[in-house]
Amino acid sequence: MYTMDQAERLAAEALRQEFGEWSDQVALFGKGEFAMEKGDFFYFGFQSVKYIETRDDKYFSYGPNCISVHRETGECRFLDIHEVLALGSFNNG
């Protein structure tokens, strides 16, 4: 069974693998406010590094910017827009 911290490290590694040479352009977003546990999964939001640094909307990466990590297996998966909407707000946990 994985902890939130371990799952966060797995999600960050999945981003690096998914985006390859562009991996320095995206990162997990926030200091925990875009991370939550729900059921058998941990969920993490990610965003462009330039947006995280500047909060300038021109750098905002639109779309389903969320990755899930299975609590038991550690499997990481990028969610589609319907899955992200079904999760609800990170603020509501």
Query: Runs with pLDDT <50, length 5+?
Result: none
Task: Provide the residue-averaged pLDDT.
Answer: 90
Category from helices, strands and their pairing: alpha+beta
Report the strand count: 5
Question: What kind of assembly state do the chains in view correspond to?
Answer: single chain
- How far is the first residue's CA from the last residue's CA? 20 Å
Coarse shape = globular
Report the major sheet.
5 strands, antiparallel
Round the Cα radius of gyration to an integer and report it.
Answer: 13 Å
Helical stretch tally:
3
Strand content: 15-25%
| Number of separate structural domains | 1
Can you give the helix content as a percent range? 25-40%
In sequence order, what are the helices and strands, one letter per element? HEEEHEEH
Notes on the structure:
With 93 residues, this protein is of the alpha+beta class. The chain is built from three helices and five strands. The chain has one domain. It is 31% helix and 25% strand. Strands 1, 2, 3, 4 and 5 form a five-stranded antiparallel beta sheet that branches. β2 and β3 form a beta hairpin.
